[in-house]
Amino acid sequence: MYFSESDSAYVISKVEARLGGFGDDRVAFGSILDVEKIPSGWAVLDGINRHIVFVDRDLNPLRIVGGAGEGPGEFQAPGQLAMVGDTIAVLEMGSGGRVSYIGPQGNFLRVSGHVGHPVGSIAVHPDSGRFYPILAREHYLMRVTGDEDPRQIARVPAIFLPEIKGSADIAETPNLVAVTEDGTVHVLDGEHLALVSYDGSDDTGGRIALLPMEARNRLLEERSQTGKTFGGYELLLEQTVTRLDPLADGRLFARVRYRASEGYVLDPGSMTATPIVVSLADWRQRVVYFDGRLLVLGGGLTPELVLATTELAPHPKTGEEGR
At residue 164, does pLDDT exceed 90? Predict the structure, then answer.
């Protein structure tokens, strides 16, 4: 099955606030890796400085917590934020996959046990706190819940996935995981550009849905050509898929760079993919948060955070995309 691309797209309707960037002395970001919405505003993960910047709903800085180190409330390699109720889980992506929990005001709460393997991506169920980490390319997931033994979830065999000649195994493409509130686990297979969804309570069953055909074919062809251009050196390739986040209504935001689109909102129910169009003529940041209405851009040479509202509009035609 393929997702069908919607005739509509999410576009920026109004820029609400900015923070950081050249000349803004309120805060200096080293990098902007992840953003999560919290009751008081936003939590922004700065990977270079290894701390979290708390800002209010208008992006005014409130406090900075964390820092480099191995002690309580300190981080070695923070790479991702996740919400468990009002608690912020800070996921370290290095060996062991340590998870630190921080309260909504930035107070340190506890550190979880290590997952035990290098972690490529991880999701936390928003209610139960159950972990769904991706640990290896050989398996999508190894589910870890309390004292239960880890259970591996086998990857979908490539024979079941249509492929573009020469595009497979070009790069160490990421597999990303997200879990929606109903407990459904979704894995975005970065190599095959397929969304694999299954009931988180079972080890079998599920559904494979490929990204929209035109986008998927183009991305895989570009990946193949890039691999040939660089002689197959994996480290020189830019990753196509970099985020997978659940939305409150059961849909998913997937950051997939394609033409003027910075990502899709994937609806597993209707099998539609609605693009998020951000003109690179105006923006140099990447999409780091999207909830179906609010969009946060972050990054740039002098990292800046931009908060904007979006609206659904007719999909821009080729040549009108601002690239």
Answer: no
* Cβ 187 vs Cβ 139: under 8 Å: no
Q: Is 124 helix (H, G, I), strand (E, B) or coil?
A: strand
Say how many domains are in the chain: 1
The pLDDT assigned to 136 comes to: 59
Determine the structural domain holding residue 141 and report its residue range: 4-314
**In this structure, is residue 134 part of a structural domain?**
yes
Q: Is residue 267 part of a domain?
A: yes
Q: Which of 205, 206, 209, 170 is nearest to 189 (CA)?
A: 209
Inside any domain, residue 323: no
Q: Is the dihedral of CA 164, 168, 171, 173 positive or negative?
A: positive
CATH of the domain at 141: 2.120.10.30
- Find, among 277, 311, 285, 279, the residue nearest to 13 by Cα: 311
Indicate the range of 16-25, 42-51, 84-93, 291-300 predicted with least confidence.
Answer: 84-93
* Residue 61 within a domain: yes
Residues with Cβ within 8 Å of residue 212, at least 6 apart in sequence: 2, 3, 4, 5, 264, 273
282 CB burial (10 A radius; 0-12, 13-18, 19+):
exposed
Q: pLDDT by residue (tens digit) across 67-87? A: 999 888 999 889 889 888 888
